[in-house]
Amino acid sequence: MKQYLENSEFINWNCPEILEMARRLKGNLSTDTEIAKACFEYVRDTIKHSWDFQIDIITCKASDVLNHKTGYCYSQSHLLAALLRANEIPAGLCYQRLSLAGDGAPFCLHGLNAVYLNDFGWYRIDPRGNKEGVEAKFTPPIEQLAFSTEGRLETDIQGIWPEPLPVIVKTLLKYNTCMAIYENLPDVEVYS
Predict the structure, then answer these.
(1) How many C-beta neighbours within 10 Å does residue 131 have?
(2) pTM score > 0.85 for this model?
């Protein structure tokens, strides 16, 4: 579990702003499930998805996401992992491969989280922000993610990563507008 609690360049939970927000979200809550839900709902409901709101501030580091209150799904998941880790709750990153149009190519990765809860084990949560047609919730042990994988090449990519995939970091650091990111969304090959 140690790797899912570590501070790193992009999940930089030991910066003062993240530590303070993690402390505030914990408040008087006592269980890891209550604390995780508070962190999840904060990111889902407070951090604006860059594409949904057409915000041209591109973030990657958790501290930048918190500071600017915006990020693509990948960045939102970095902040959620940081808030959870700052509260000593193991958290990692997960990915789905989704069709942008819902019916085939082009495809892209979608970022979300997995959190280790004492009563449930690993549980996936999606902090990307709700909107019409998207309703992610925290209801362990039942997952309610923002998106389901249905198409032939759509898939839940197996694994829980302690750090962002290199293709995610490369994309977020290379482009500086929400449109440029959208036109170059990261993807990985899958085989049916």
Answers:
(1) 11
(2) yes
